[in-house]
Fold:
Amino acid sequence: MLKNKIAVKLTAGFVVIVLISMLAIGIFFIQMFRQYAFNSRENTMLASARSISLVVANYYQSNSQMPGFGAYMRSLDTLTESKVWITDGKGNLSIMAGMGQGKMGQGLGQGLGQGLGKGNLKNSGPLPKEAENVIQEVLSGKESVSESFSSVYNEATITVGVPIADSNHLIIGSVLLHSPVTGVTETLNRAMRILAISLLAALILAVALGIFYSLLFTRPLKAMNLTALEITRGNYSARTGIYRKDELGQLGNSLDLLATELGSTINQLFQEKGKLKDIIASISEGIIAFDSNLKPVSVNNALAEIMSRPQPYLKEDLEIDLNNLEIEVPLTNVMKEKKSLQLLKDWVGKKLLLTLSPIVDNYGAVTGGVALVQDISESERVEQLRRDFVANVSHEFRTPLTVIRGSLEALVDGTVENSEDIRRYQERMLSETHGLERLVGDLLALSSLQSGKITINKETIHIPSLLADAVKSLQTIALKKSIEIVYRSEHDVPLLIGDYDRLRQLFVILLDNAIKFSPNGTKVSVEYKVLNLNTLLIIISDQGYGISEADLPHIWDRFYKVDKSRKGNSTGLGLAIAKHLMELHNAKVSVQSELEKGTTIEVKLPITN
Amino acid sequence: MNKYLLIADDNDSILDILKTYVRKEGFFPIVAHDGEEAIDRFINYKPLLILLDVLMPKKDGFAVCREIRQSSNVPIIMITAKGEDGDRIMGLDIGADDYIVKPFSPKEVMARIRAVLRRLDISDEQSQDVIFHPGLKIKLSDYEVLISGQPISLTKKEIEILWVLAANPGKVFSRDNLLNSVWGYEYFGDARTVDTHIKRLRSKLNISENLSWDIKTIWGVGYKFEVKHVEE
Structure:
């Protein structure tokens, strides 16, 4: 793990770079120095060798008559700081002996050996090994320089050879100088030591710098990592806390910005989700979400009520209910075909409309399903009412039409011939036509009252006069049945605000019914009283056929006729219209009735209207 | 033979029109204004056919039809303002033979009555030599008269007079008519003979108030067989 750490990598990098560069420079300079030292030594030695060669040549030419030559020879190694060998043309040292001074070489060798061998070596007489090659080369007339390491000196040595030529340019011998490059190795060693020390220092520095820089880098990286992890855990308020101007600082800022944006986006998403949840919760339809295995995963509150279960809706109950609804197969199909489906189900006296839809993700795969459960009992009931109404209206039209058509046919085909019958048939048709007209009128009145688009002309109304007016208009019908309308308008009542025509219509309907459903020769009475100073009570009572208890709740329904055999010219809409007229005036009504005894209707009209 | 035709409808005008046409067709209309009355009239008169309105007080046409079907195969034609398929199917399913929707043509109703009756098997009950009236059965071939199921002993001439009268309810027969019908034209008897026979017939039949029919004397003209509820 350690090698994965940036600090280690960085430090190692530093160390390697420092190491390589230092070593390269060090080695380069050491080489340079060494080269320089050798070159200068070689040049010196070459110059010495040349001058020796000249001296030796002169010596030979002057037939060995040269004063001081011997001393010169003897001091040669000191002068040149080298071992000096002089060979004859064949490369033998003995040439010197041949010149009559055979001891010279020996002497030289001894002297040199003594001078350079730190006095311990008796004689290093023989030539060093490499000298053999040098001599051969020199004797061919070339100057030679070679370097080697001498185990004797424990130093690098330089061997220089120069040919000795006579006046005729014949090679008559050679001069060999062999010398250790004194001090070079030592200097080099010292340089190496310095190099090593500075390398060590540089290494320490590199490690320190490496650690420093890695800390500089890794601290914000760690902080950013922690922040990123925090964000992953859902803490969008986490910040890196990095304030730098470099790229890391920018990265940190970007991360902080990311966290901020992410935080607000997530927050918005949560708000949206919350809104959606609230919406789903407040929807009056039940919603069930299924996963891909058809297991219900969530439901809203409305569902329990629709399914007639107590809140909270228990999971076991839900599963039982879903089983009973038998939606597994249709739901499977819906999810397979990716098409919505509507189902009607009966559920404990309710009618439920189920809309099953698949949940499809962005890639078109079905991830679940949704069932929308609507309780359509009420709308079904309203629809039934509407159907009944239409059927009733149609029935109410068909019956008079049948009479008119039948009568007309009878007249046309001569089935009725008697002039009296003909007149009867004609009158019947006329009366049915009036009936139809009334029916249409009543239907229109009812529909405008039901639509609520009716306008009320509010005015102050004197109820006793209004009732008198209504009574008067029904007098003729009452007289035909010798029914007496008893109306006492003795005490005065407060005026009330209302629509005169509509209130008059209301009492005309009620009085008309009273007369219509009373046997001949009876009485209908109209009274009024003030109740609690703010309510006017109007009582209409008859001695008619009465209404049975079973029929009583339905008398205000459209087309409800208590006894169809005695409907006469009733449309069955009068009381339905009356009910709406009372609602317009916030009136309350109560009916008491006993069969064959009579009916009493009490209308309570608020005075402060 | 019996020519009663029961018409059940709660609308008097429709009843009136249908009655007129039914009579013209040669039937005797019996009317009922509600379902209970319809069943009652059916039991009493054993009509040849029933015209039954669906929407009636007390018992609707479907209920009446169902109840009648439990004991009888009498032809029933339903009349209704409801023209929906469901109602027609239901009406036919519970045993109606035909279904007529308002507003109808009375002539069409008659045609349907004829059509239904054509398909009818003329059984014993409906055969030519038997007359039914409420509580009265006359079988001419056997010279048998039953009142409320009890045989009454009558002479040949008495039975023949009763047959002539009962075969044409509501029709007034003069004494000469009856003499010619029963005794023949070559018989030169006194018109009083008819009176004597009628008197004897009345006492033997023991006609009282609770019977639905009567042999009525029309002063200065003759006699007629009157059945209650048979509309004029």
Notes: Residues 4-118 of chain B form a domain with the Rossmann fold fold (CATH 3.40.50.2300). Chain B touches chain A through 26 residues (CB under 8 Å). Helices of chain B lie at 12-24, 35-45, 61-69, 85-93, 106-118, 156-167, 175-183, 191-205. Chain B has eight helices and twelve strands.
